[in-house]
Write a structure and sequence with these properties.
two-stranded antiparallel ribbon, elongated, alpha/beta
């Protein structure tokens, strides 16, 4: 059963009822994320599912997709950074219970019974924002193409990059 996202949720009742929330929220609704964005245009589509695993551990599964408007720190132009979050958070009453979480789960400490689902979605979006946003494929002043897609080329081999110390080697070898 899907329902509109309330301000607060009784996490343990949501787990017992196996509640599911789906919808979209405008990016402008996220106060802490806002200063990291170029503007508040766009929305995040989300799905929250509360349940228990086979061992009885309570969790909330978060799936969210958004195109975050960021400012490229190389060109200072706006670009959209695609984000897809698929995270399972183990619901805990005490920090000491964190050791009992299955591998791959992140802890979510629920003080009392209430949790703010919008804040949980916002936390995951904040974690997805790169430390130094750069548009994938931008060229630097020396013609080197920088990419956030990794170092592997189309054939899977590591891409050849010029050494950042190549200029120092030239200076050392040719002192004139």
């Amino acid at each position: 059963m899907s329902a509109a996202l309330p301000e607060t949720i009784d996490a343990w009742r949501a787990v017992t009822a196996r509640r599911r929330y789906e919808g979209a929220l405008p990016l402008s609704a996220f106060q802490r994320l806002g200063p990291m964005l170029a503007d508040g245009e766009g929305a995040v589509r989300y799905a929250l599912a509360f349940d228990r695993d086979e061992q009885g551990m309570a969790y909330v599964e978060i799936v969210a997709e958004a195109a975050l408007p960021l400012v490229c720190q190389r060109t200072l132009e706006r670009f959209e950074f695609p984000v897809r979050i698929d995270q399972r958070l183990g619901l805990l009453r005490r920090e000491a219970d964190e050791a009992g979480l299955p591998p791959g789960w992140e802890p979510l400490l629920v003080g009392g019974d209430a949790m703010a689902p919008k804040a949980v979605i916002e936390d995951e979006l904040i974690l997805a924002v790169p430390l130094i946003p750069t548009r994938p494929g931008e060229e630097s002043a020396d013609g080197v193409v920088w990419s956030t897609a990794g170092d592997a080329g189309a054939d899977g081999a590591a891409a050849e990059r010029p050494s950042p110390f190549a200029a120092l080697v030239r200076l050392r070898d040719d002192p004139a």
